[in-house]
Amino acid sequence: MEAEIQYFNSEEAAKMLGVNVSTIKRWTDEGKLECIRTQGGHRKFLMEHLAAFLEKNKKKTERVNLFPLENKTDLQISNRILKGDFAYLIGYSYDQALACNRDKLQQVLNGLYLAQYPLHQIYDRLITPVLYRVGDLWEQEKLSIVEEHIASQTIRDCVIRLQGIIRLPRRKSGKALCLNFSHEMHSMALKLVEHILELRGYKVFYSGQNTPFLQIERVFENYHPDRVYVSGTILANTAELQSEFDKMCELCSNYGTKLYVGGRVFDTIKFSHSSVVRRLFTFEDVHNF
Q1: Cα gap 260→275, rounded to integer Å
Q2: Distance, CA of 206 to CA of 97 (rounded, Å)
Q3: Residues with Cβ < 8 Å from 267, sequence gap 6 or more?
Q4: Rounded Cα gap, residues 190 and 179, in angstroms
Q5: Which of 23, 44, 115, 181 has a CA that sits 20 to 30 A from residue 124's CA?
Q6: Residue 53: CB partners within 8 Å, gap ≥ 6?
Q7: CB 277 within 8 A of CB 286
Q8: 42-55: string of b/e by CB count within 10 Å (b at 16+)?
Q9: pTM of the entire structure?
Q10: Among 250, 243, 245, 202, residue whose Cα is nearest residue 226
Q11: What digits encode the pLDDT tens for the residues 108-133?
């Protein structure tokens, strides 16, 4: 059975090449961009038409270096982004992360942002599934620990670079403190939380991984956070973690600070304290609450 030929209209071609529709029409009228004309006079484009134009006119399609288009593969990724084909993008992004192809993974993240996908959707629908795939394959011993670290660090680097192009509000709506439990080595989720909170207008104090809760009261005294976000995945010592968390709840109660929690560790330790506002399961939760 032959594959169905995919055609693009002028609007879709314009989005893929990073220009407006009038420019697409002008290029076709000038013979610079090949197309197929329907009986009704509408322009239809094949991927080959766009790729051929791109090869000859790369400078005409630059998107301020945020989403560089250089070949047919780049156009196909652009099309997958515009179609919201996250199933394909997850597999592609995993491959790029494992191969440490930061430029290609960055292209996907920047493209999604330019296509106006909310940051929490990019994290929930792409980054989280890719990280889960990396972790699952490592647990199945299909990836070495070195490969797991390379893929995870590649994703982390690209996420941080993405944050560099996102326009943040100047006016701050409050202060938030993001903390991992002691001995917690997986800090990626909390880093993504930080980004979403910044986009919401919060000034964020982020401690990173493996942060002891020693002298944590001094942090409250110095920063006076309106909110605290605590995340954990590693259940090293239940009693120790419970003690740390109980202390955090007490501090939040004393300072009138709202407490939000997330991560698998809260499947085990108790978190039913009056200072806990909500357990967060997705980055959309972080965005909404």
Answers
A1: 9
A2: 25
A3: none
A4: 8
A5: 181
A6: 17, 27, 32, 33, 34
A7: no
A8: ebbbbbebbbebbe
A9: 0.81
A10: 202
A11: 998 898 788 999 999 999 999 999 99
Tokens representing 76 are 């196909």
Contacts of 253 (CB under 8 A, 6+ apart): 273, 274, 275
* H/E stretch holding 84: none
Tokens describing residue 48: 């080959």
pLDDT in tens, 235-275: 778 898 899 899 999 999 999 999 999 999 999 999 999 99
Task: Decide if 197 contacts 226 (C-beta within 8 A).
Answer: no
Q: Rounded CA gap, 289 and 284, in Å? A: 8
What are the structure tokens assigned to 220, written together? 């409250």
Distance CA 227, CA 274 (A): 14
CA distance 90 to 125: 8
